[in-house]
Specification:
The protein is mainly beta. It is 11% helix and 33% strand. A hairpin with a 5-residue loop joins strand 1 (28-32) and strand 2 (38-41).
Length: 201
Amino acid sequence: MKPLALLAILLIFLVGTALHVEPSDAQVYKKRNADGSITYTDKPLEGAEQVEIEQAPVTEFAKPAVATQPDEPEVSATGGDSAAEAEAIPTEFSVAITSPEQQQPIRANNGQFDVLWQSDPERLPEGYVYELFVDGQPAWRGSDSNQVTLAEISRGERRIYVRIVDAQGNQVARSDTVVVFVLRVAINGAGAGSGGNGGGA
């Protein structure tokens, strides 16, 4: 193909692009002149034949992907992670007997009276339990109550305390020892003795 013909085709494409004409819609005609030269035109001249023009491929530029933010963990109203707060175990524990009072005389002919206490936290984490002792001997153990009814406690001076232990049995908190005086009427020797026995509520 002669350079002149190539130039003509190029001009047609440029003109079509400038006029926003799709190359597939532009028509090119080829006519061989009497002197043997070839003329290219966009008009259907007499004796001219239409030239098939291949449509240039169209490439779309890929749109940039929008970065997505990872899901953030749920945050509680206090600003901490709710799951972490639910599983958090306090680093400090405390417990104190609220009843009976220190040096209190307790009239209990049947040797029965209540012991109440308060703790921090108020609800123990899983695996932690209370242990109630009377005169150094275990009288009750549990985690779902802060009140115990002791029974058949012998008359005389009795020393009571409560402690909190973890799942391995390690003490994490202990109340002060409360000293009370159990008053019982001895009938034929009943109620005598210094030992203490406890029954859970």
